[in-house]
Amino acid sequence: MVIRLHKLGYNHTAVPVRGDQAKTAQHLPIIHIGFGNLDAWLLGTNHRVSPANYQGYLNEFVFRFNRRFWPMVGSDSVLKVAVQVESLTYRNFNKSAKTSSNPLESGEPVLTG
């Protein structure tokens, strides 16, 4: 993964935190809240998420997460998308999750946003 990131122009610097809360808070101030929200959302809303559907669900979570402070903007965005594109069937959902843009182009689920 680090090699692929380097090819895309990113530098990876490992910071071992080894349970040190101060280092964790300094380098990843609220990341645990984000992943906790993702975990709770997947377990609560989508009881069974198969690996084949991870990218689609991550895309939806990022969409919702990025609009959490502006609920009407999210509704407006959903309405615009709904009238501008064809309806999405379950079969197409699986297909779009596999072919959605992935910055690492690895086929692995990626949380972006």
> In DSSP terms, counting alpha (H) and pi (I) runs of 4 or more, how many helices?
6
Spans of at least 5 consecutive residues with low confidence: none
Estimate the mean pLDDT confidence.
Answer: 73
Strand coverage percent: under 5%
Instruction: Give the SSE string.
Output: HHHHHH
- Please state the structural category: mainly alpha
Proportion in helices: 55-70%
Number of strands: 0
Radius of gyration: 17 Å
How far is the N terminus from the C terminus? 19 Å
User: What overall geometry do the principal axes of the alpha carbons give?
Assistant: extended
What characterizes the major β-sheet? none
Q: How would you concisely characterize the structure shown here?
A:
The protein has 113 residues and is mostly helical.
What does this structure look like?
This protein has a domain at 29-99. The longest helix is centred in the middle third of the chain and has 15 residues, at 31-45. The chain is built from 6 helices and no strands. By secondary structure, it is mainly alpha-helical. The protein has helices at 2-7, 21-27, 31-45, 54-66, 71-84, 90-99. 58% of the residues lie in helices and 0% in strands. α4 packs across α6 (90-99).
